[in-house]
Write a structure and sequence with these properties.
Shape: globular
Order of helices and strands: HEHEHEHHEEEEHEHEHEEEHHEHHH
Helix content: 40-55%
Structural class: alpha/beta
Number of strands: 13
Strand content: 15-25%
Distance between the termini: 36 Å
Number of helices: 13
Amino acid sequence: MKHLAFIATTAASALCAGAVLAADYTISVTLDTSPQHVRNVWLKDFAEAIEEKSEGKLELEIFEAAAKYKDSEAAAAVAQGAIDMAIPQYQLISRFVPEADFEQLPMFYGLDRDQIYAVVDGEVGDELHGKIEDKLRVKVLGRPIDLGFGTVFSTDVELKTPTDLTGLKVRVPGGPATVQRYENMDAVPVQISWPDVPQALQTGTISSLWSTQESVASAKLWDAGVKYAMEDRQAIVQYVPLINQRALDKLPEDLRAVLVDTWDEMVDAQRDFAAERQQKARELNAENGIVTSDPNAEALAAMRQKLMAVQPALVEELGIDPAFIDRIAAVTGE
């Protein structure tokens, strides 16, 4: 990947080419993360590839750092046609489709990347995307891209095992399964949108947060008091690409194919890129004083057993189809 500081706008093209060369079609995209974030960096590479393959006929106009919408609002905005495209986390769609909270369930605690991809890239993923499309009247552009495995961070309490979270106010991005997970871990989950996290840390609204090494590094949250971290692979965070159906239908067939095919061609490399960025972010966070621990196998197994005991009741409470869970279990071997 080139990872160029590419801005997919007509104005930027004019500065580079010395003339205003408008594309025939423009897709507007909302992100609530910062320009340095892994999702933003990769999407600019994707936008560049789209412009090249379409010979300048199609461009992406990217609105970053919640300039348009927070991710918690993004799916609804796409469904309503207020923005053409968004790439929110799965769990932020769960208020429309309960099954979208699947990766936050206890059964995903501790799974590796390949096991997760076997679910999301196969028939189970296709089924879920169909549910999302039917409910929101949008199109899922393709397979999800990665942010990475979640990490728990703290301002005051050194985190070494999952039981160290007891009593802490933990920021969560959303999704009822995530909220329930922290309640079952004896913590106090607080749902806060990402742009509001630094202030929440500084004011003491939260003393901990569930995010990723990449997100914390890109936001320089060491400046907001973050000192400790723990990687227990509670769940992976993935982004699902949603595009307004009407916006997609306006594109000629060849440009629709460019959009869909290019996305699929770039997903695997993006996932590797995201994993690399997480490791580099961990190193950068360490350089800025954030100490990360890796719990031992016994501590992880004990917490997984505790969480799995409540999964049946959680699935019922969330309104998730039990047969959908059975199909996931058949893939993961649970």
